[in-house]
Backbone:
């Protein structure tokens, strides 16, 4: 059964920003990222929560939705906010870490969120 596209580019960017705020460290296919993306979409009221969405066992978002978020993550990598490697044991992709610029970007996101409350 094919899933319907739900996320616009703007919503994909919002979810990617939330991933940065929460601390993203692995963008690999086995990282649980799809489940995290669905959980964030549920928390933001974009999709209805269903048991298992945070683990990716319940699939709601389409492949194109996932790729929209991944496009934004790659955009942040190209901007220099994220870089390869999480630590000395995981120095390459799909592991990532916030760069100094990424930490500043994250702080701006958090400040914007605080000012909006």
Residues:
């Amino acid at each position: 059964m094919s899933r319907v596209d739900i996320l616009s580019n703007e919503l994909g960017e919002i979810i990617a920003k939330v991933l940065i705020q929460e601390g993203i460290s692995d963008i690999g296919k086995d990282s649980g990222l799809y489940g995290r993306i669905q959980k964030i979409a549920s928390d933001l009221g974009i999709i209805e929560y269903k048991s298992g969405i945070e683990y990716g066992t319940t699939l709601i978002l389409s492949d194109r939705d996932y790729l929209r978020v991944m496009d934004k993550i790659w955009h942040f990598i190209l901007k220099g906010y994220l870089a390869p490697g999480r630590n000395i044991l995981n120095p390459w992709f799909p592991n990532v870490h916030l760069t100094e610029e990424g930490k500043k970007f994250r702080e701006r996101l958090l400040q914007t969120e605080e000012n909006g409350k």
